[in-house]
Amino acid sequence: MAEDCNQTLRELYQFLDGQLTDDDRLHIQRHLDDCSPCLEAFDFEAELRLVVKSRCVDQVPEALRARIAKAIEREV
Fold it and tell me: What are the pLDDT digits (tens) for 1-59?
């Protein structure tokens, strides 16, 4: 696998989350336009996110949110 593919796959989640700079986003978009294996990985991850989002509609109880926040604070 080419280094450009490795970098694209490493940054795929940031790309999907809109967390990349405009330059990085454009670089990945161009790579996806030219690389069918990376585009296939992108399509899979994008579809997986949609499925998870559509199935995970339950609200997290506030007590659980508080416990998780405290646990994170202890770790940081």
Answer: 688 899 999 999 999 999 999 999 999 999 999 999 999 999 999 999 999 988 887 88
Number of domains in the chain: 1
Q: Structure pTM?
A: 0.67
- What is the domain extent for residue 71? 3-75
Give CA–CA dist 70/45, Å, rounded. 30
Q: Report the CATH number at residue 18.
A: 1.10.10
**Rounded CA gap, 71 and 67, in Å?**
6
Residue 46 CA to residue 40 CA, distance in Å, equals 10
Report the 10 Å Cβ neighbour count for 11: 17
H helix intervals, 18-76: 22-34, 36-55, 62-75
